Amino acid sequence: MRLLQALSKFAASKSLIRNVRAAFSQTPLTSDTYKVERGNYGEIASEDISIFKDIVGCSHVVTDPSDLEGNNIDWLKTVRGQSKLMVKPKSTKEVSEILKHCNERNLAVCPQGGNTGLVGGSVPVFDEVILSTQRMNKIISIDPISGVLVCQAGCILETANKDLAGHGLIAPLDLGAKGSCHLGGNISTNAGGLRLLRYGSLRGTVLGVEAVLSDGAVLDCLSTLRKDNTGYDLKQLMIGSEGTLGVVTALSILCPQKPASVNVAFLGVESFEKVLKIQQCARKDLGEILSAVEFMDSECMRNVTHHLNMTNPIADCPFYILIETSGSNASHDEEKLGRFLEEVMDAGIADDGTLATDYTKMEAIWGLRERMAEAMLHDGYNFKYDFSLPTDKMYDLVRASREHLKGICKSVVGYGHLGDGNLHLNITCEKYSRDIHSAVEPFVYEWTSRHKGSVSAEHGLGFKKRQYMAYTKSKEEIMMMKKIKQLFDPKGILNPYKMLPDNF
Ligand code: FAD
Ligand code: 2HG
Ligand code: ZN
Questions:
Q1: Distance, CA of 115 to CA of 491 (rounded, Å)
Q2: Strand 109-112 vs strand 129-132: parallel, antiparallel, or unpaired?
Q3: Is the CB of 426 inside a 6 Å radius of any atom of ligand 2?
Q4: How confident is the model at residue 3 (pLDDT cuts 50, 70, 90)?
Q5: In CATH, what number does 139-254 get?
Q6: 454 DSSP 8-state letter
Q7: Whose CA is nearest to atom 9 of ligand 2?
Q8: pLDDT tens-digit map of 64-118
Q9: Which end of the chain, C or N, has fewer beta carbons within 10 A?
């Protein structure tokens, strides 16, 4: 049995390597696809490699090009860098020594966590040194009384969540990439995800951050206090700064109690107006136990069932809503959700629906939503957007894009975190082309800006979206951000070509 398991693990890892290789050779270099010029940075020399080996140990400096393939290409297989070197530190001290050396030698650095980012921020553009946090995966402490988790930046979200469960706690965030993304990456992107409706943004739950600055100085803001009003809140600058201001090395985060009862309802409706109506009823009827409100359209359902061979548990409908409740009293919560379901069906707002109270059924329903990004990846080249919009306008953008791109694209789908006003617009085509790209952009950004939305609700700007920041932020805001960048990283070595737009 053990041998069989080992053999199948070996086969799976071989097929993973083959897939990465195939994607790698098919993805053009970022510098060929996009107009971007290498900054005036130093080039890695053999003395640099020796110094990095002295800092982290020989086996934690990677220079073999084939071992670097997966770290040079993003999850979406849309951008590809040319790094020749990855360093894998284990401690804050090692990160500090690496950055000190890079700063002295003017070597550009790309911090990398789980490499699940969706905007091209996590991979180098040219030959930046990849600084991976994969070995920085230590849980420092879990306090079951205060609910505070303190850990290194490279802890994988799902693994940390399992440790937290042992103390009756859960992480305040959850996302489809949980099996690979790092908590440090989550903080650096200010990830939103599926629990934000209930537990709020990381700007509220993260209590402390330790980060190493570009010159190697350690900025220790690793407080575990819930309240601290002394001066500027520097950790907030690290949250969502996408590796451009410092390398997050450790964090403390407030974790809620694991709810005693979780239930899920999955509903089908005929129009987006009814989707909104259901959301309103859910807020009113489910009140304090409501923990997630997600939606997807029929195009999404078609893609996820077709590409991932999954099953729609209810009748085919134009829209679907997933409602989750989390509470402390199973019979009370089930009864409340059951009554809500009955009401929306009787009132003719929902056309079909199902209730899941057992783990297996809930997982199957959540799987339809959580694996949407993966399903769309099977559909072709993905243009991905995560807009923040007034909720009543959210779906108008999907309709407008379909109209605008008629005959040009394969799928135009809308789904996302309805309860947060966060639309994931995904547009697919067989193969990337500049013509399709310019049909899609700036159309979608202009539309969003006209309707007072944000061009990124949760994924950030990374490499691919940085030139569009001005659709959401004023010139004064962007200028101030550039001054902050200059202060933290005068030589601009930290994640160059990312987040901040060029022309300001
Ligand atoms: P990476 O992808 O490695 O890096 C992301 C950015 O952070 C890069 O700019 C990188 O340079 C920087 N960075 C990483 N680690 C550090 C560090 N220690 N210090 C400084 N900078 C660092 N995002 C959401 O917000 N909500 C979702 O629901 C969601 N769902 C997803 C589902 C799937 C299937 C996938 C593939 C992605 C999803 N994402 C989502 C996007 C992504 O998972 C998140 O942005 C996540 O927070 C990235 O974490 P990571 O460790 O993979 O970071
Ligand atoms: C999600 O909510 C993620 O599933 C990914 O943010 C969204 O792939 C996307 O467009
Ligand atoms: Zn999302």
A1: 25
A2: parallel
A3: yes
A4: very low
A5: 3.30.465.10
A6: B
A7: 373
A8: 999 999 999 999 999 999 999 999 999 999 999 999 999 999 999 999 999 999 9
A9: N
